[in-house]
Structure formats: C-alpha cells, structure tokens
Amino acid sequence: MKKCIICGKELVKKKNQSKKYFEQQRFCSNQCIGKYKTGEKNNRWAGDNVGYDGVHMWIKKIRGKASKCEHCKRTDRKKYEWCSKDHKYTRNAEDYLELCTSCHRKYDYRFYEPKFNVEEAKKLKEECLSYRAIARKLGVRTHSTIQRYLDNN
Predict the structure, then answer these.
(1) How far apart, in whole angstroms, are the C-alpha atoms of residue 124 and residue 131?
(2) Per-domain residue ranges for the chain?
(3) Given this model, what pLDDT does residue 70 score?
(4) Which residues make Cβ contacts (< 8 Å) with residue 7, sequence separation at least 6?
(5) Pairing of strands 80-84, 96-100
(6) Are 133 and 127 within 8 A, CB to CB?
(7) Which pTM does this prediction carry?
(8) Can you state the percent helix, strand and coil of the chain, rounding each to 5?
(9) Which listed residue, 35, 40, 55, 86, has the most CB atoms within 10 A of its CB?
(10) Which residues touch 99 (CB under 8 Å, ≥6 apart)?
(11) pLDDT by residue for the chain (153 residues), tens digit each?
(12) Rounded to the nearest 5°, which phi and psi values hold at 96?
C-alpha cells in the first residue's frame, strides 16, 4: 500500500493510469505537490540571488502581511509594506521592518542617490529657476524629484 509523502493519504491507482506512472507517484494531489516543492526543494529556487519582487513575496510568506508601522506606531493606515533595513534584500527575516507607505518612502529617501548633478541643481535654484525648468535642463523626468531633493537637503 502506497501513501502520499506529505499527508499520508493512501494512493489509489486510477483506471486510466499506467502501472509505471502509479509506481512513480508520490503525492495524492496537486496541493501536496505544491507543499512539497516549496523553498529549496523547488526547481526554480534562486537562493540569495532572488530579485526584489521575489524577496518581498518570501518575506510575506514568512512573516505574513504587514499590519502596523514600526516607526509611527499607527495601525489605522490603508496600506503597510515590508521595508529592507539596509536595502540589500537578503533572505534574513530580521532585516525587514513593517512600515506604513508614508514612513517607508521617508525611510527609503535616506538611501536615495540622485541621478542628476546636485551642485548644478542648487546653482540653478539660486538663479530663481522653477523646479520644472531645472528638471528640463538636467534631463530629469519629473520636477518633483528635484523639488524633494533640494527642499530636504
């Protein structure tokens, strides 16, 4: 008598199933296959080479959906997100914070490195140019990027 290696349910040979296929069978359902092929057993497992989206799906699976803000301590916001403390996106669950969207943006901003010449932007601002004009001159897509950076630094 063969049993499913996940749930222990007895495996029964179906009428249209070949004997060879039944002998190779180890699971009773697709759900049990899915439970078995998680983590390192999955043939698409990337380990520490996982990308941004993959590591965020992993942290949600490990720690659940973010439900509070560890910075402002609020629990009445519409959306909470997992935030990497050091922006290295490793598979260490302790390296993530639960933050509301507002605090997450502020936290990430500290790691932001502008893709424009900051000194030139400051000089242009001293010449009383608008943020839009500065963005156009420096080839920056949105003026709000210039505005946020110059107002906070």
Answers:
(1) 9
(2) 1-45, 49-109, 118-152
(3) 93
(4) 28, 32
(5) antiparallel
(6) no
(7) 0.55
(8) 45, 10, 45
(9) 55
(10) 66, 69, 70, 71, 80, 81, 82, 83, 107
(11) 789 888 899 988 888 888 888 888 888 888 888 888 777 777 777 777 778 888 888 899 899 999 999 999 989 999 999 998 888 888 888 999 999 999 998 888 777 677 788 889 889 989 989 999 998 888 888 888 888 778 776
(12) -125, 145
> Which single residue is written with the structure tokens 């249209």?
16
Following DSSP, what letter does each residue of 29-40 receive, concatenated?
SHHHHHHHTSGG
Amino acid residing at 80: Y
The whole-angstrom separation of Cα 17 and Cα 5 is 19
Name residues whose C-beta falls within 8 Å of residue 5's C-beta, 6 or more positions apart in sequence: 26, 27, 32, 36
